[in-house]
Design brief:
3-stranded antiparallel beta sheet
């Protein structure tokens, strides 16, 4: 399945956020007031169930422009039609507030995150194994050797 960079960003971002939020300590908000503590715990419970708040700024590492927000909204709709995610409104009203990956979306997102992770070589890289034939080195001239 060929995905655009926007679609890949959304899928990987949802899975990354879901794992990060669900891994938080449930009692980490114990020192908060009653309502913030409840919101903290509700957010963790929702992430454990797969519901992740839309975090476009975090996924892009910069505040989105108005046109980017519209483009990503359309991307959410396309991904939903493709059967890779579900859009949910958990706060009442008409706007989408949370996204949830389907089984197929989870499989693809896990593959995307696996591609992002660095390769562990378990030791030193042997330079003799690298193909240096395509490397172009500058030609030495008398001016460069005279310096």
């Amino acid at each position: 399945m060929n995905l655009t960079w926007r679609q890949e960003t959304v899928l990987a971002g949802v899975l990354r956020d879901q794992r990060a939020i669900a891994a938080q300590d449930f009692h980490g908000g114990d020192n908060l007031a009653y309502m913030p503590k409840g919101n903290y715990r509700l957010r963790i419970r929702r992430a454990q169930a797969g519901y992740v708040p839309i975090n476009l700024q975090g996924w892009l590492s910069a505040p989105p422009s108005n046109s980017e927000s519209v483009m990503f909204h359309r991307t959410h709709i396309k991904l939903e039609r493709m059967g890779l995610l579900e859009r949910h409104n958990l706060g009442g009203g008409t706007r989408t507030t949370h996204l949830r990956l389907t089984e197929e979306g989870m499989r693809i997102a896990e593959g995307l995150l696996a591609e992002e992770s660095p390769i562990d070589t378990n030791g030193m890289l042997d330079l003799a194994d690298l193909d240096m034939s395509s490397l172009m080195l500058p030609v030495e001239t008398d001016a460069t050797t005279a310096s």
